[in-house]
Amino acid sequence: MIYLDSAATSYLKPRNVERAMIAALHHMTSPGRGGHSLAMNAADAVYRCRAEAAELFHMKAPERVVFTMNATHSLNIAIRSLVKPGDPVVISGYEHNAVTRPLHAIGAKIRVARSPLFCPDALLEEVQRLLPGAKVMVCTHVSNVFGYVLPIREIARLCRAEGVPLIVDASQSAGVLDVDVSDWGAAFVAMPGHKGLLGPQGTGLLLCGMDGAPLLFGGTGSQSKLQEMPAELPDRHEAGTHNMPGIAGLAAGIEYLLPRRAQVERRERALLAELVTLLKQNPDLELFYDGKGEHQAGVLSLRSRSMDAETLAQKLSERGVAVRAGLHCAPLAHETAGTLNTGTVRLSLSPFNTTRELEAAANIIRGVIR
Known about the structure:
Blueprint: E1 2-3, H1 15-27, H2 37-56, E2 65-68, H3 71-82, E3 88-92, H4 97-106, E4 109-113, H5 120-130, E5 136-140, H6 152-162, E6 166-169, H7 181-184, E7 188-192, E8 204-208, H8 244-257, H9 261-279, E9 285-288, E10 299-304, H10 309-318, E11 321-322, E12 324-326, H11 331-337, E13 344-348, H12 355-369
């Protein structure tokens, strides 16, 4: 299989991820639930993963790295900590349903900063116009549909100037782009473990610039007499038993990335440029590409002029190319880009993809269209 669906889940991973998960099953139980060696092994692994994540994301306090089930879980904690019914909330025009659905459920008054693809200056103008009077801004770092890298540092600066807390969805950037929590000053940064961080499904992180309100309530292995959740992080947001195989695998993914993060970014951008070169001469294809690649990460959406997105993706699957078609759980992004009625076929890259795979995939795409 030629796997070009890493924006959904990183199927291609370092071998140490699997080994770490198996070792956790054999040598770890639950952190904070005993003083025996199996529980202490788990406690050590949990701390190691927090410390590695804090280093990767430029955080001084590992205890502010909270484990979650996925980015959706992280975003729900962040959003429900800051947004109340009727609050005006600014979002970009490229948000995922993991942002928009919680806001709609709460009853927030949503202000959408709409701007064309790959036009960060236009987005900044809209954000600046909409921020006054807002209670919160929620913004993705990279569009999961188009790979568009939003100007998050400048957006963070605008939010600080207006005194508006910022929640960043780093689902498509964590592990690939530089996610600098200390520079942004965000209230929360949410991310999954199973995409760019190269960990397993069922893992996520919430990087906490503020304490926030618990979403789940239950045992933490600490302060058991309390009938409220502990005030201290990370226990405040970590009710219940930890996913130790998942956390061990996530730690292995982060360990792999720590010395290689910039290299991974360069490789994915180079692969994206190769893929565009291979496909752009086909008159049947419409590519959603930033001409210089300056504002785009390793994701390419396309449409065929002769075939609907789902049919094209299915035919590619039958020929051994894994992609994703449709709206990608982000109808707002498609509405903003003008692709809501058709959706797109999304090809998303991994640092483990090869030029040979891209050449083979491009040939298969040409053959399917013919």
